[in-house]
Write a structure and sequence with these properties.
The structure holds two protein chains of two kinds. Chain A is an all-alpha fold. Chain A is built from 14 helices and two strands, in the order αααββααααααααααα. In chain A, 75% of the residues lie in helices and 2% in strands. Chain A is globular and about 75 Å long. By secondary structure, chain B is mostly helical. The chains are: A mainly alpha, B mainly alpha.
Amino acid sequence: MHKSLKKYFPVFVMPVLAAFTVSFLAPFAMGVYLSFTRFKTVDSSEWVGFENYISIFTQDETFLYSLWLTVRFTVVSIITVNVLAFAVALLLTRKLKGINFFRTVFFMPNLIGGIVLGHIWSLIINGILGFYGVDITYDPSYGFWGLVVQMNWQMIGYMMIIYIAGLQNIPEQINEAAAIDGASPVRKLFSITLPMVMPSVTICTFLTLTNSFKLFDQNLALNGKNAETSLLALDIYKTFYDHTGLRLAEWHGIGQAKAVVFFLLVAVIAFVQLRVTGRKEVEH
Amino acid sequence: MKTRRKAFNAVIYAVLILLAAVFLAPVFIVIMNSFKGNFYISEEPFTLPKDEKYVGIENFIKGFTQSDFLQAFLNSAVITVFSVAGIVLLTAMAAWYIVRIKNRFTKMLYYLFTFSMIVPFQMVMYTMTYFAFELDLNSIPGIVFIYLGFGAGLSVFMFSGFIKSIPAEIEEAAVIDGCDPIRTFFMIVFPILRPTAITVAILNAMWVWNDYLLPYLVLGSGEKRTLPVAVQMALTGGYGNKDMGALMAMLVLAILPIIIFYLFCQKYIIKGVVAGAVKG
């Protein structure tokens, strides 16, 4: 059969490959090339070597700022989302009536798109700050914590589902044995439950990590105008599209170089994740 | 012992109910404000739409007419339906070919598709937009084609994972019986792929329906705009004056279809979204 299928390449693979080439492969290759050039439009590029990459760190003040902001935001999100999601999962694995209702409610925000979500929170946060006569742009830390709250609202339900699956995989006998040995609930949590759900912790940590690191829509909708609360993805977008005038070609080059650095950072995270989760699977 | 357990359960319920209220509050506040007059939305966002604050469905009428919300809604619906249908069918076909025909070229394709999953959108944002305009893909059918390319990575990866786990003998028996590959795929392979197809469909539907930047760059904020683009334009004052009432109504109308969809297919959605995350 494999011989007869082989001739059908144009039918089976060509449509996807054509679309993939146009929307990903060619733009990716061209993006790497353009990061070494100055270009007003794609057709008028001028080779400058590593100059754009140097400019990111010397001329452009926003990159390092937003990178540091993104790192802080990511760390805070990982901790808060995972601790809260795990706590909720613990509550929801008890045998109680009506548990499904709560699961439904907690997961729901995950389905709302980033733009709509950002505007919902913008209304609420500005509403609360309104009592004190200020708004979210008053202090960058308001924007920062606004993003954290928003991230928690969206991600907790999602991570909760993964933690519930992990908790339900713990064999009943282990808990019973611990109870017979007289282990306290706190001891049981740290000596049995947590070590047993480590695979879920790893998955959830990386999921929160990549989602926070690449956050764009929510950032744009909640406080997109404020440069002081622009995360990396939004900063790259602004480098491309918020500049006009004589230095446009230069900014495009810098923007594309930032995008390549951003891509490399995400790739490193993905690579580490692959190594870590890969090793975990071998152990089990 | 029993009364203590009961008391403990009561505490857990209290905590859960409180949490549920916190989780539902944002949506509730938006719905509440969508029935209030402009002034009261920005001045008193946390009060109920009572007495002089209540304006009935006026905001919803304005939301529909002012920003041509219906057009954006229909654009989003058409783009999502065709993109998802195309992605599910065509990436399943491609994945089957790549897994069953083993050579250096298909192996390379598999790695390229997998690789594309980790590349952030900002990396290809500018150049992809250039190609979209160069090749006249800045239309609704055009963006469906672009979505096929962007969705290919995760979808091919997920289908391939499943196809590897099913034995090729069933397919080979069909070929011996005189089935050509196209019939074999549609009669035998695709029905087996159903569970993965549902997961792939849900993941892509959520992504395409909620996606903002790609349709904004390719289709713009004119008559071809999608729902998230219309919401963003309206809320940042892209249509001139900010009409808070109409905006609240738009937010409600944007959330409503998702929540209804979720309540009906909850089981599949949670399973699908989580399966996609764990694999990807």
